[in-house]
Amino acid sequence: MGTVEKNERFPKEVRLRKQLEFKYLFKKGKKIYFRYFCIFYIKGSGRVGLVVGKKVSKNSADRNLIKRRLRHIYRTNKEIFKNLDLVILALPSSLKATYWELLDDITQNVKKINDRDD
Questions:
Q1: 20/25 Cα distance (integer angstroms)
Q2: For the chain, counts of helices (H) and of strands (E)
């Protein structure tokens, strides 16, 4: 296995981990649907939660692939997430998407969210 650079990690400090944090974002956050994801967000410190449920795929390997891709997208594009706390909820269409399609969907739409004056 290769080593991961320190700036390419997905440390605990930048993850939403507690059920209360997820519930708060689901209840109080704004929700926007995109092609492959539904994003719940509020202005915050740049923390991210990932949700890939069994509705996407019953196969755990497929769900884990999507989560790995999302973590990599976060690690390589941290600057666009810095002002938001968000939950990225994968939709079933994300299963058929390539990494590059997921990257475009996430980066373009998170930039649009950042540009809004909400």
A1: 9
A2: 3, 4
**Residue pointed to by tokens 């990257």:** 103
Nearest-angstrom CA–CA distance, 4 and 12: 15
**Amino acid at residue number 27:** K
pTM to 2 decimal places = 0.87
d(C-alpha 92, C-alpha 3), whole Å: 32
- Rounded distance, CA 41 to CA 16, Å? 12
Q: Cα–Cα–Cα angle for 8, 13, 17, nearest 5°? A: 110
Residue with tokens 């600057």: 79
What's the rounded Cα separation, in Å, for the pair 53 and 26? 15
pLDDT at 13: 79
CA dihedral in degrees (9, 86, 104, 108; nearest 10)? -120
* Interval 28-60: pLDDT, tens: 999 999 999 999 999 988 889 999 999 999 999
Q: What radius of gyration do the chain's Cα atoms show? A: 14
